[in-house]
UniProtKB/TrEMBL annotation:
It comes from Lactobacillus taiwanensis. This is HAD family hydrolase. It holds the Pfam family HAD_2. NCBIfam families: HAD-SF-IA-v3. InterPro entries: HAD-like_sf, HAD-SF_hydro_IA, HAD_2, HAD_sf, PGP-like_dom2. GO terms for molecular function: hydrolase activity. Keywords: Hydrolase. The keyword Glycoprotein does not apply. CDD domains: HAD_sEH-N_like.
C-alpha cells in the first residue's frame, strides 16, 4: 500500500525547457541560441546540479564566455530563471488532493540549490513534507545512495513509497531499492491517478 509519494521536479511538477525559459528575456535568435549553449547546455550546468560548483561560480564562468553586450543578460538569467519556469498546475492540484487523502509528499531532484530554495521558499514548499536535492547531497540520480538518503532521512519504507520521474533510468534505480515507480509525462497524469487509486 502506498503511503509516501516522491516527485522529481523537472518535467514532473514543472516544464523544464531552456528555450521556453529564454523566451522570457529580450534576445534575438542568435543571442538566444548562444545563451542556451553557454548556460543550459554547458558542463557547468550539470556541475551545479551535482554540487561541484554553485550558481555564483557558474555565473562568473558564463560571463567570461560571452561578448560584452551579453554579460548583463547572463547575470539577469542566472538570477531570475526560476521565476520563468512554467509549473504544472494540474499536478499541484493533484498533490493538494493527495495530501488531503493522507499521503506524505516528498521531492527528490537533480537540481541546483538556487532553484531548490526557490521552490522551498515559495508557496509550493507547503506541498512537500521533505526533500532531497542533488546539489546539497553531492549525489546525482540514478546513484542508489541518493534514494537511500531520502528513505533514511524520513524513515520511509521503500515498499510503501512511490517514486515518480520522467526518466526511465531514474525510476529503474528506485525500483531496484524496492520502491514502486511511475515514469511520468504530463499527458500521463490520468494514468498516474489511476495507478495511485488502485495501490
Amino acid at each position: 500500500m502506498i503511503k509516501n509519494i516522491v516527485f522529481d521536479f523537472g518535467n514532473v511538477i514543472m516544464n523544464y525547457n531552456p528555450d521556453e525559459i529564454l523566451n522570457h528575456y529580450e534576445l534575438n535568435r542568435q543571442e538566444h541560441d548562444l545563451l542556451r549553449k553557454t548556460i543550459f547546455e554547458s558542463k557547468e550546468w550539470s556541475e551545479i546540479d551535482a554540487g561541484k560548483i554553485d550558481e555564483k561560480q557558474a555565473t562568473n564562468i558564463f560571463i567570461n564566455r560571452v561578448p560584452d553586450n551579453l554579460k548583463k543578460k547572463v547575470n539577469q538569467i542566472m538570477e531570475t530563471w526560476p521565476e520563468n519556469i512554467d509549473f504544472y498546475e494540474p499536478v499541484f492540484n493533484y498533490i493538494e488532493q493527495l495530501r488531503k487523502d493522507g499521503y506524505r509528499i516528498y521531492g527528490l531532484s537533480n537540481i541546483g540549490m538556487k532553484f531548490a530554495n526557490f521552490v522551498k521558499d515559495s508557496e509550493m514548499g507547503n506541498y512537500f513534507d521533505g526533500y532531497v536535492f542533488s546539489a546539497q547531497e553531492k549525489l546525482m540520480k540514478p546513484d542508489r545512495r541518493i534514494y537511500e538518503k531520502l528513505l533514511a532521512r524520513y524513515m520511509l519504507k521503500s515498499e510503501e513509497s512511490l517514486y515518480i520521474d520522467d526518466l526511465k533510468a531514474n525510476t529503474n534505480a528506485a525500483k531496484k531499492l524496492g520502491m514502486q515507480v511511475f515514469t511520468f509525462k504530463i499527458d500521463k497524469l490520468g494514468e498516474l491517478q489511476d495507478y495511485i487509486a488502485s495501490h
